[in-house]
Amino acid sequence: NTVQPATGLRITITAGPTREPLDPVRYLSNHSSGKMGYALAAAAAELGAEVHLISGPVQLAVPAGVQCLPVTTAEEMLQACEARRNQTDLFIACAAVADYRAEQVAEHKIKKQSGQDAMTLTLVKNPDILAQMATGSPRPFCVGFAAETQNVEGYAQDKLLRKNLDAIVANDVSDPGIGFGSDDNRVTLLLRKGEHTEIRPLPQNSKQQLARQLLLELLTFYKEQQQP
Ligand code: C5P
């Protein structure tokens, strides 16, 4: 009966896309598969953590030992995360949250306008769930993801500081063999150590293997930070 690396830790993970309705039949969303977030949840449960997965709409089975709360919109995801704040030691934001939502959701299906070739949708910014979790109190240890197509480490470093995170996982989504929808991923982990950021590239791996490796690194860093 060995003690596992994450025994006693409560980990909340967001995963998948959010879906922002325009009217009763249409929405804005993105291609996030949720695979990375679900792999992290599975790995965290295997490592002994109490895991809560807050998931947008995806086609994946909930991993063994994981509690899943399905949500649709960014605002619902934020409410679900806030509801878990007091019971979260580690917060990992893996979801691809829609940056904007429709200012007004039409009550009835929006009709084609005859004689009008263009239409305008007014969008408003969604809340930044991760940034809000990292500024409120009590503040969990906060980990973000940064999917970039250029200057990957530079932009990830900016996000780490701007969103007040402890760590960020950066990946290059311009590489078709890795990232969105793919089973493989290659990431760089950035750990915030006071004024200094430690940059740790991890080898390319299946999302399963990578999730386990990432969590082990994050758990070590988390425990170091808890030392007085
Ligand atoms: O700023 P950007 O969207 O690239 O930041 C990505 C990170 O922030 C991811 O960890 C993502 O889950 C999180 N995020 C969030 N809420 C948003 C936008 C991004 O939690 N509205």
Automatic annotation (TrEMBL):
CTP binds at residues 99, 109, 127-130, 145, 159, 163. Its EC number is 4.1.1.36, 6.3.2.5. Residues 7-218 form the DNA/pantothenate metabolism flavoprotein C-terminal domain. Its cofactor is Mg(2+); FMN. One of its GO terms (molecular function) is phosphopantothenate--cysteine ligase activity. One of its GO terms (cellular component) is phosphopantothenoylcysteine decarboxylase complex. It catalyses: N-[(R)-4-phosphopantothenoyl]-L-cysteine + H(+) = (R)-4'-phosphopantetheine + CO2; (R)-4'-phosphopantothenate + L-cysteine + CTP = N-[(R)-4-phosphopantothenoyl]-L-cysteine + CMP + diphosphate + H(+). Pathway: Cofactor biosynthesis; coenzyme A biosynthesis; CoA from (R)-pantothenate: step 2/5; Cofactor biosynthesis; coenzyme A biosynthesis; CoA from (R)-pantothenate: step 3/5. Keywords: Decarboxylase, Flavoprotein, FMN, Ligase, Lyase, Magnesium, Metal-binding, Multifunctional enzyme. One of its GO terms (biological process) is coenzyme A biosynthetic process. Binds 1 FMN per subunit. Residues 11-228 are annotated as: Phosphopantothenate--cysteine ligase. In the N-terminal section; belongs to the HFCD (homo-oligomeric flavin containing Cys decarboxylase) superfamily. In the C-terminal section; belongs to the PPC synthetase family. Catalyzes two sequential steps in the biosynthesis of coenzyme A. In the first step cysteine is conjugated to 4'-phosphopantothenate to form 4-phosphopantothenoylcysteine. In the second step the latter compound is decarboxylated to form 4'-phosphopantotheine. This is Coenzyme A biosynthesis bifunctional protein CoaBC. It comes from Marinospirillum alkaliphilum DSM 21637. The chain holds residues 187 to 414 of 414 of the full protein.
